[in-house]
Design goal:
- The longest helix has 15 residues, at about 45-60.
- α1 links the parallel β3 and β4 (about 65-70).
- The chain has a single domain, classed as Ribonuclease Z/Hydroxyacylglutathione hydrolase-like (Metallo-beta-lactamase, Chain A, 4-Layer Sandwich), CATH 3.60.15.
- It has about 150 residues and is an alpha/beta fold.
- The protein has a six-stranded mixed beta sheet with strand order 1-2-3-4-5-6.
- The mean pLDDT is about 90.
- The protein has helices at about 45-60, 75-80, 80-85, 100-105, 115-125, 125-140; strands at about 5-10, 25-30, 35-40, 65-70, 90-95, 140-145.
């Protein structure tokens, strides 16, 4: 049997094939045997529950996830992350929050938009991303905006 790799990426099935999405669990193991766990997207809500079960079964019982990365706030990538937040303490959330850039993007929108109105509209357009941001803030997770 060969040496164990210091990292794993596990791509979990999402949906029933009619709807695409992603849910990736990963872990990195240092020379001391300590592991860092990261989740990249959470797939659909059902996939999120399976993702949590997978992490517990294959990575051991953990109370925290070191990094959660949301590549983009579409429902089939973000919905399952709500389950991850419900089941684990999240240390770091890496997420794109377009509402933070409303001032910079205002000139790209036609019509009579105010910065506040565009912020509100973008926030409402990505409700799960907004919910994840609120969850991370309430849990005092460190948030990194993916555009920063």
């Amino acid at each position: 049997m060969g040496a164990r790799l210091p990292f794993e990426f596990d791509f979990l099935k999402v949906g029933d094939g009619e709807r695409s999405g992603d849910a990736v669990a990963s872990r990195f193991i240092d020379q001391s045997g300590n592991q860092t766990i990261a989740v990249i997207d959470g797939g659909t809500l059902d996939a999120g529950a399976r993702l949590c079960d997978f992490i517990r079964t294959h990575y051991g019982e953990h109370t925290y996830i070191d990094y959660v990365v949301l590549t983009h706030p579409d429902d089939d990538h973000s919905s399952g992350l709500r389950e991850v937040f419900r089941n684990f303490t999240i240390r770091n959330l890496i997420i794109h929050r377009p509402w933070l850039y409303a001032r910079d993007a205002l000139n790209l929108f036609s019509g009579n938009w105010s910065v506040e109105g565009l912020e509100r509209r973008l926030n409402q357009s990505f409700p799960i991303g907004s919910e994840l941001e609120e969850l991370a803030l309430s849990l005092r997770s460190y948030i990194v905006d993916s555009l920063a």
